[in-house]
Amino acid sequence: MRLDLRLIAEMIPDGARVLDIGCGDGALIGHLTQEKRADARGIEIDMKQATQAVAAGLAVIHGDADADLEHYPDNAFDYVVLSRTLQAVERPREVLRQMLRIGTHAIVSFPNFGHWQMRWRLLWTGRMPDTETWDRAWYETPNIHPCTILDFVALCEADGYQVNGWLAVDEHGSRAPWRESLRLANLFGEQALFLLSRKG
User: Fold this and answer.
1) How do residues 140-175 score in pLDDT, each as one tens digit?
2) What is the CA radius of gyration of the chain?
């Protein structure tokens, strides 16, 4: 299972009600169902991956995060997960709002565009960076809203979301030793994970 999915699974307690948006082949919800007895469901925009997940016996529907979340009732889930998808949706701010309407907690992971390698490659080559995490050419990537860790924190503050936890890691799973400093994590963390809730 992908690194960020393993870390997300660690954040979710046994028996939780979980919705995984952009669940891919259902690796996370399969793990949560088997290992944590979670009531885990998924939405996937790619029909091939959604079909693969359903064939594996998982509760996955074909759907679009930008259009379909508004059909879910308030507080239907304990955790709503968006892993490496925020940067690819058309309306990330609205998707976050919907996540925290239908779930008590939101878990969001994304590749950090503020990592020093991204800055250096853009500065040195004048071209869009191509790294292990950002591994597609600009004309092939589904990413339309790349952001940095500091950008994401600023959005959470602007929209009134409580950051209950966060961490930054590299592509190989080493957790950043600078976990107390968002600015250093923004410079050295390749991926970020945030646990959010509504304020009040």
Assistant:
1) 888 888 999 999 999 999 999 999 999 998 777 666
2) 16
Contact 116, 176 (CB under 8 A): no
Query: Which long-range contacts link 172-177 to residues 24+ away (Cβ below 8 Å)?
Result: 172/3, 173/3
* CB half-sphere exposure, 171, CA atoms < 13 A: 9
Between the CA of residue 159 and those of 20, 99, 108, 138, what are the distances in Å?
22, 13, 15, 29
Are the beta carbons of 185 and 168 closer than 8 angstroms? Answer: yes
Contact assessment for residue 18 and residue 40, using Cβ atoms and an 8 Å cutoff: yes
The helix or strand, by DSSP H or E, that contains position 79, with its residue range, turns out to be strand 77-83
Question: Residue 46 has which token pair?
Answer: 């790619």
Contacts 24+ apart (CB under 8 A), 157-160: 159/93, 159/96, 159/97, 160/198, 160/199
Residues ≥6 apart with Cβ < 8 Å to 3: 169, 171, 172, 173, 191
Here the tokens at position 6 are: 């393993």
d(CA 117, CA 200): 38
pTM exceeds 0.85, yes or no: yes
